[in-house]
Amino acid sequence: MTVTFSDILSASFVHLYLSLIGTFAGGLIGFIVAVLGRNHARILTVFLTIAELIQTFPSIAMLALLLLVFGLGNNTLIVALALYGIMPVLQNTYEGLSAVDPMLIDVGRGMGMTKRQVLRRVELPLTFPMILAGFRVSLVTSIGIATIGVFVGSGGLGLFIYRGLQMLDNQIMLEGAVPAAILAILVELLIGLLERRLAKR
Amino acid sequence: MTVTFSEVTKVYQGKKPAVENLNLEVHTGELLVLIGPSGCGKTTTLRMINRLEEPTHGKIQIDGRDIEKFKEEELRRGIGYTVQQTGLFPHMTVKDNIEVVPRLLKWPKDKRDERVRELLAMVNMDFEEFAHRYPRQLSGGQQQRIGVLRSLAADPPIILMDEPFGALDPISREVLQIELKKLQARLQKTIIFVTHDIDEAIRLGDRIAIFQTGQLVQLGSPQEIVKNPVNEFVASFIKKNYQFETSNLSLKALDLASVDFHPYESHDDRIILSIDGSDDFYLVDSDHRFIGTISKENVKANQITADKVLQPIRVYDSVQNILSIFKDVNTLPVVDDGNKLVGVITSLSLMNAVARLVGGNES
Amino acid sequence: MNYIGYLWSTYNSQIIQAMWQQIYLVGISLVCGAIVSIPLGIYLSKHTRLATWVITAVSILQTIPSLAFFAIILPILGIGATPALIVLFLYSLLPMLRNTYTGLRSVDPTLIDVAKGMGMTSFQRLIFVELRLAAPLIVAGIRLSTIYLVSWATMASLIGAGGFGDLIFAGIDNYNNDLIITGAVPTALMAFIASMIFTLIRRYVTPIGLRRA
Q: pLDDT: is C171 or B240 the higher one?
């Protein structure tokens, strides 16, 4: 059995697609919690502790346990990715928001902006680079975890690695492993580059 | 011990010389102030003495011995060093901080303990109360005091101070300046003191060295410099920073005051203080704001209300002003701009101030 | 309770064997990683230009998905515990290296200047000032590495290194939920316990003068 280039390409897209869905879902939760909880230290601490615990959970153990609930297929993987994706965005958004110079918020309020406008026009734009950094960390982690999604029946590049391992075929294995590594490194470098662009502004 | 600079030049790569052809002798037991605008070379000059910077050309000697001849670490252990942000190690207690150099010198524990007690006593800080606190638990002024004590710990003959009071509020700064003067009168160290505050220079310096873009432009006693600035730069530097008063004594109210309060007791949010040389007690609120004075009788009778309303004077009031008021009263409280009680002028404190002026020594 | 008792009585010998294998994999790679990365972090903190390159290189290494990494190493080094240890060792480097480096670089330069000015040798400065102040961050790095290692060591089962992964993967392959739970829950517990231990150590090494009131 041979793997064609287009097989690899389509598996890469599936891989990236699954990673993005999971990351976005988790990031959205993290973002919302951070924004709503920014003035409620206690609630935020509870969420941060939970998110931190999830982060500590070994990925294959998490997938295996979710498998019992969500069954074989992409759903289990996406739920796991979303869970892991909460923490980086939550923490970075929260830290970014608390690092905004209170003077700027005062100035915004002084110019007659409502709290919501201050958030949208002042706080979030200033926090954006931090949020993006959280998203990058989260997406790279997701790409890594997505490779082992194959064990719970999801698609993506993990499939080739799994097949290769089972058939003891190094070539097929590498046809999954190398693109997965490249994908992760590319995402890391490209989003990192974007962050540096933003930081220069 | 003397410190001698002979034709010392320091050049950082690709820049104009930070210090150029400096010749300077620091005498034994004097407090020499190095002053000038930022980037003038004063700090570099200071840092070359303990070899935190190495001169590009020229020679620096301590008591005639080239400092290159010493092992770097040993040289530094023999020279006290204090910096602006206190430089206290946050992970060490007050005692551990003070003991750093004695430990490096392997003093036995008893001797170190005794030394810490002795030093804290010099600035009226209670050993039991302060020795085991961490820097974070001290006020800015207290931290800086510990910074100064730390540089004195191993009893070095030479002490380098790099804007040690620069980060303090004006009141704490004045209090510490006065303390430093007292310490110096007693210990007679050779102190090299960097500042950019001409007021501080005139107040503290036996001599002042004024620097401009790496050059030493004038060296002399405060009086000489104020009276005969050698050029336009020096004149404008003095004028800009220091409004010269009718007397060339730069004394202000706080210099004449005693600042050694003793807490007597506290009532709710009010604190009663006593001070040497005054029979009265002084009532302040929890923020140390001045409320009034209370006679001894009333304190004993537990009548905690101000019974005399002495008009306090300001820290910066001039000597002339004070003396004209003092004719009619026995004591004169001194407050800062926030109405906080910072000292009391008494006959005793006046006499001490005069003694300092005349003899440089205190009874 | 009954269920746990049932799992234990059925699988106890496998659990214990897997646990020791996992501890062995994590322990050895962590210790080796620390021996290399902490001194390297110290060295790099004094050579910042080199540091940028090394840290970038190690970060990229870290980005590679663990399964992909195992798969790439397999054809080169074969299967078993040794190749697994090599991969785990490489993976453990970054958190410890980065935290050691950042911790040392974030020590207030004034303190280093003063320590120098008071006559400490560079070794004394490192021991009494820099490492003392950087210790909490370094321990945080060790904690992160340990958590990652527990997770990746589970994957090492795929190249025949044993550990809890054996139970989990066998459970998935045979649709045996009991076996999945028997593998996954102890793995997670191991990560939590390791995390807690290092959180406590971190608190302990944080100088009293810097602890939050």
A: C171
Do B115 and B213 have their domain in common? yes
Q: Looking at the structure, do residues B78 and B220 belong to the same domain, yes or no? A: yes
Structural domain harbouring B258:
253-359
Residue B62 three-state SS: strand
The low-confidence residues of chain B, meaning pLDDT below 50, are 242-248, 360-363
**DSSP state, B244?**
-
Domain contains B247: no
Can you give the residue ranges of every domain in chain A?
5-200
If asked whether residues B151 and B172 sit together in one domain, one would say yes
CA separation for the pair A3, A5 (Å, rounded): 7
From C45's Cα to the closest Cα of chain A, the distance in A is: 23
B267 forms bridges with which residues in the sheet?
Answer: B270
Q: Is C66 on the interface with A (CB under 8 A)?
A: yes
Tokens 């793997």 correspond to A3
Task: Locate all alpha helices (DSSP H) within C106-176, ordered by sequence.
Answer: 109-117, 122-124, 131-155, 164-173
- Inter-chain residue contact C177 with A61, CB threshold 8 Å: no
Bridge-based pairing state of the strands B190-195 and B158-162: parallel
Q: Which of C60, C68, C184 sits opposite A65 (nearest CB)?
A: C184
pLDDT less than 70: residues of chain A = 1, 201
Task: Let me know whether B232 and B322 are in one domain.
Answer: no
Residues of C in contact with B104 (CB under 8 A): 118-120, 124
So what's the pLDDT on residue B158? 94
The total domain count for chain B is 2
Q: What is the pLDDT of residue B62?
A: 93
Q: Is C95 on the interface with A (CB under 8 A)?
A: no
Beta bridge partners of B79: B158
- For each of the domains in chain C, give its residue range(s) and CATH number, in order of start: 2-208 (1.10.3720.10)
CATH superfamily of A5-200: MetI-like (1.10.3720.10)
Do B214 and B18 form a contact (C-beta atoms < 8 A)? yes
Q: What CATH code is carried by the domain that includes residue B318? A: 3.10.580.10
Binary contact (C209, B75; C-beta < 8 A): no
- Contact yes or no for B212/B233 (Cβ under 8 A): yes
pLDDT (tens digit per residue) in B296-343: 777 777 777 777 667 788 777 777 777 777 767 778 888 877 788 878
Clarify whether residues B169 and B318 are in a common domain. no
Which chain B residue has the Cα nearest residue C205?
A: B91
C177 CB within 8 Å of a chain A CB: yes
